[in-house]
Amino acid sequence: MKLLCITDPKTHPHFDTTISLYKAFAHHTDIDFFHTPVASINNSGKFQGVNISGDFSNDDFMALDDQPLMVIDPCELDLIFCRADDPVPNDFFENLSQLETIVKFVNRPSQVVYTRRKDFLEDHGREYLPEHIFSSSYEEIKDFFQRFNPIVAKMNVSYGGNGVFKIWQQGNRIHTDNVKEGLMTYSSFRDVVNHLAEIDPTNEYEFVQYLKNIDQGDKRVFVVDGDIYGALLRKSQTGTWVHNVTAGAAYYPSTVTEREREIIANTYGYYSSRGVYTLGYDFLMGNDGEWILSEVNAGNIGGYDWHESVTGDPTMTRLIQWLIDGIPQ
């Protein structure tokens, strides 16, 4: 199988899943593996990339940008696995989408544009989410805040916890906490809403009730082509309310409950029918002590190697064999 992956190496920390995938692909005897940088994606219909094989180290991954590039014709490829991290160029998915009639994608780029948005889950699974609203109306947001203080604001498309803000009031001051910005204090709630609008002026935010059991961690359930591969519990080591591994959280083996299986069974088809097959379902512990759906990550899912390392399950082997056997596009 001729497989091409798209990413920018320097956007990945040393423990990143994409590096583990590159190592596995390069070493696999049934895979002729190619890499192309995000900047190579344009409307020309061709890629500039590198052929990778054999032993492949972290240092080799980080040095990919320094390698001479060769022309790669997508017609000669069997599969493209996009591992690009946000933010990507504005025309990135549009340019990739033009190739969908030529080559298969693990997740169709024309559909990832929609399925990675939080309002996609709102349309197809809102009944499984905690109390929330999507809004750009100051009065509506303020009413929600007054009902549930504290709350969490989530950008419609975000990554690594960067687009998630805890908001709460103490006395006459409003406070926010965000992985990127840290703690900030405002004199009014309107100032907070205005600040959020400046960060992302084109999309409504999702505003969610802050769950009192957030310190129990964030459970990631891995779903590939409708099959549940298993679950990881990600938990902050510093006491912060954000449990992303990229923000310093540790990870542990976890289980998948019958309720979680039911939620996945009732929502997965909305993604697979659009040609999006690799999903990360994230659950938080609700105020009643039961795990509740937080969001669904569609596309560039991390953690397969972490799951394998802490459970002993052949998670990576299973994923790679699924790629080789042929996705159902």
Description of the molecule:
This protein is an alpha+beta fold and 329 residues long. The protein folds into three domains: 2-105, Rossmann fold (3-Layer(aba) Sandwich); 118-125 and 213-321, ATP-grasp fold, B domain (D-amino Acid Aminotransferase, Chain A, domain 1, 2-Layer Sandwich); 131-209, no CATH class. Helices cover 28% and strands 28% of the residues. It contains ten helices and 17 strands. The strands form three sheets. It has a six-stranded mixed sheet, with helices on one face. Strands 7-12-8-9-10-11 form a six-stranded antiparallel sheet, covered by helices on one side. The chain is globular and about 60 Å long. The model has no long low-confidence stretch (mean pLDDT 93).
Output the keywords.
Rossmann fold, 10 helices, globular, 3 domains, six-stranded antiparallel beta sheet, 329 residues, alpha+beta, six-stranded mixed beta sheet, D-amino Acid Aminotransferase, Chain A, domain 1
